[in-house]
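Lab channel / #folding
Pinned by the channel admin:
"Please post every new chain as: sequence first, then the structure tokens as a reply. Keep commentary short and put observations after the output so the thread stays searchable."

First post following the new format, from NK:
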Amino acid sequence: MKKIGFLLLITFLTVLSACSSDSAGDGKIDKIVFADAGWDSIRVHNSIAQMIVEEGLGYKTDVTSGSTAATVQGLREGDINVYMEVWTDNIKEVYEEAIDAGDIEKLSVNFDDNKQGLYVPTYVIEGDEERGIEAMAPDLRTVEDLKKYPEVFEDPEDPGRGRIINGPSGWAVEKSITQKFETYGLDETMNNFIPGSDSAAVADLVSAYESGKAWVGYYWSPTWVTAKYDLTLLEEPAFDPETWEKTKGTEFPPNDVVVAVHKDVPDQAPEVVDFLKNYETSSELTEDALNYMEANDVSAEEAAVWWMKEYEDIWTAWVSDEVAEKVKDALN
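Reply from TO:
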């Protein structure tokens, strides 16, 4: 019996030690886990926040990658602590449910001047005299107009029909655009192509743009893509909540892109919450980092360091002078 009791004690202490590895023992935590839902801007904002949280506030950090659905669920369950870019209206029902249930807490609006929808290179409509490109669809204005131009946006794997690049598989917008196909009758002449990743969609766009060919697909700002290339967002009827809910037959809803945390984080890491409540950027500020990232072929972490040096006046306003000095020392 003594032997059994000793083994049980060892087992208990081992479990207790494992449970305490990321805890300060008083309900606090010493590691903050961020969500990476698969796009560059969230990675840059993660890296900016991680630098401040690690170097200025003394916490360890980690990142959990996954689809929007998986990472939001992870936030609700507490496996993820911080989400730097919750596109609230893209996941409106899930977001509001999580807020109402008290599973997550909104801390700040990261940015709210973003756009999203179906884009074409502007030269498709207007031509580009400098590049010797003639307008391919001069009367193209709206998303619904696309069904009249299958030959312009021809699917290389299905001649006679056009191809529209949707959002990547697993992204919330993919279902919205798929519904738009039916609403606008796009499926009469166009194929709904769902790429496996954002990078695959970008590679397709860049290849077409550099070759001066027609391309149409989903994208959004802020991104280095929309900052670097001259793209036109195709028009849709003004956003109407009831129509959007029923058919998705309007422009995308206005999106507050917010910083949110799991419900326990305010008690577990109050200093982190105080900092994140002040976190605010813009599409332009975000695109500056993304432009640097693409132009110099560097990681999100390296782009974040550049951005923090370039915009020291922005991020230092989010924290105390003492924290700011610690972070600046680490950056230099």
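NK: The first strand starts at residue 31 and ends at 36.
TO: also worth noting, Residues 2-19 form the longest helix (18 residues).
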